[in-house]
Design a protein that fits this description.
It is built from no helices and 10 strands. By secondary structure, the protein is mainly β.
Length: 114
């Protein structure tokens, strides 16, 4: 069965950096695009970034462009999100998933606060 395990979150000061990881299993990871999403308190889950199966193309929501970088390792079946210049408004639970995937992991909490 599909399993997604996110990790790497934590408490960081504004301007700081974090690197999130998402270990995937239960599907042919190397053949599917992957996405990061986030859900802030009281808000709906929103898309953050997408990477193609071969990592030749990435896209980002406007609010994180130039600050976040999505990448993947198709040997380790893992997708990453490098986050820099973090802002309080980046505070959320972060999730990864396939496009159209209906099974979600537990997410990893990112809190940006001084």
């Amino acid at each position: 069965q599909v399993q997604l395990v996110e990790s790497g979150g934590g408490l960081v000061q504004p301007g700081g950096s974090l690197r999130l990881s998402c270990a995937a299993s239960g599907f042919t990871f190397r053949t599917v695009p992957m996405r990061w999403y986030r859900q802030a308190p009281g808000k709906e889950r929103e898309w953050v970034a997408t990477i193609t199966a071969t990592a030749d193309f990435t896209t980002y929501t406007n609010s994180v462009k130039g600050r976040f970088t999505i990448s993947r390792d198709n040997v380790k079946n893992t997708v990453y999100l490098q986050m820099t210049s973090l802002k309080p408004e980046d505070t959320a639970v972060y999730y990864c998933n396939r496009i159209g995937g209906t099974t979600w992991g537990q997410g990893t909490q990112v809190t940006v606060s001084s």
